[in-house]
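dude i think i finally got it to work??
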Amino acid sequence: MQVEFLGTAGYHPNETRHTSCVYLPNAAPGHAFALDAGTGFFRLIGRRLPPQLHIFLSHAHLDHVAGLTYLLDVLLNQQSQVTVYGTPQCLDTIASCLFDSPLFPLPFEHRRCPIEPGDCLAVGGVQVSTFPLTHPGGSLAYRFDWPHRSLAYVTDTAGDGRYIDFIRDVALLIHERNFSDDLHELAKLSGHCTSADVVRVAVAANVRRLAITHFNPLTSIDPLEEDSLRSQYPTVISALDGLTLEF
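look at this
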C-alpha cells in the first residue's frame, strides 16, 4: 500500500512545503483516498485517477480544504466520481462559504457524505472510523483498516491523548507535529502538538511506524533535529512533500 505526501505544512505554504494533503492512490481496487485537501492537492493535476476519488476532511480550516477549489483542474479529462467526507458543519462551511461568490464563482457539486465523530463506515471495502479531536472548531481523526494493515491520520489536535485507544496498534500513524517543544505554550493555545506530545501518544498506542507532518512553515529545520526526536522514537519519519511510503 502506497502513501504519498502531497502537502506537509500547516497554516500556509513555504518554498518547499504545501499545506496538508496525503494521497493513497491504490486504497482499494478502483478507489483512491485523499486525506485533507490543502494546497498540496494541486499535485494531483495531470495524474490518472481511478473511477472513485474519496476525500476525507479533518476540518474546515483553509490549510486543509483550500485545494478543493482546484478540483476543476484535477478532474480535467478524468472520469472520476468524487465523494467528500467530513462533519456536517465542515461540509456546510465548504459549500456555503468556500464555494460561494464572490470568494469562488462556482458551487460545490460533488457528492458529500456527512459523518459524525465516532461513525464507522465501509468505503471500497475499507473500514473507516472517526474520532473527535481537541482543536478550536473541532477536528476528526481517521482510522483506515484493511484485512492485513491499518493507518491512522491525526492532524490538528492538542495531543491530549484521548484518542490513544482509537489509534492503538496501527501499522502507520500519520500525526501532526506543528511545533517544537520550546513552543509548547503556543501549541497549547492553538490546539496543536509538539514533539513530546507526538512521542507520548505513539509510544502509548504501540504504533508500528510513525510519520510526522503538518509542520510550522516558518522554520526550515528538519523537525527530527529540533527535539532529538529520532533518539526518542527511532523509527519516526519526517514527511517531505513528494515522499512516498510503503506500509
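The chain has one domain: 2-246.
im so relieved honestly
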